[in-house]
Amino acid sequence: MEQASLTIDLNCDMGESFGVYELGNDAALLDVVSSANIACGFHAGDPLTMRRTVREALSRGVAVGAHPGLPDLAGFGRREMAVSPQEAYAMTVYQIGALSAIVRAEGGRLGHVKPHGALYNMAAKDAALAEAIAEAAYKTDPALVLFGLAGSELIRAGMRLGLRTASEVFADRTYQADGSLTPRSRQDALLHDEDEAAERVVRLVRAGVVRSQQGVDVPLTAETVCIHGDGPQALAFARLIRERLEAAGIQVKAVGHG
What positions belong to coiled-coil segments (predicted)? Predict the structure, then answer.
């Protein structure tokens, strides 16, 4: 099924340095992507990094979003924690609030929220957790766009509350037949062939399907594509994705812009 829109958002997780520890190539990636998900200090990031990343994104016209995670610096927010919906709500409001204040102080406006890592994956399947995160975004600012895994509980929760949602697909992750991401604990969780990944992104945007690890096509709504910024080839990969999209006549544009 061909999708009517030939525009797509490219988002990247950023601001994930902490203190003296530097991670990613944010400044260069901001010239490629249309949306930046900025860590808010729980899984990564610190106030100075948050401010610097916000300023760099705003100066390039890149949409700024909050990237709240679990309070797990050592595990980079990728380890599941037994948090209640009430805890998830409070920590999400806390992190959105922190980044939103920095964005306002720099003369911008926070545009979206995308949970990070384990919190994102947990909310994709746990309806109560998804509801708590969506409610945190809505009560902080009902104009925020909620990013979530395509077909997930988080997208459904956002829709129920009346939030604008953006269904997300991943350029470098493999998928299961039910539309879920292959767990990072598995060796086949990541796509290592950049040409294959780029072509898959174009197919996702044009046809709305992805080939699963089980060899079947899975229908997915693609409104924003995540490009991870913490790998050694992240910048070259991001540029390749954008080049292939534009060569296919697909315009890269932030969700809700234009």
Answer: none
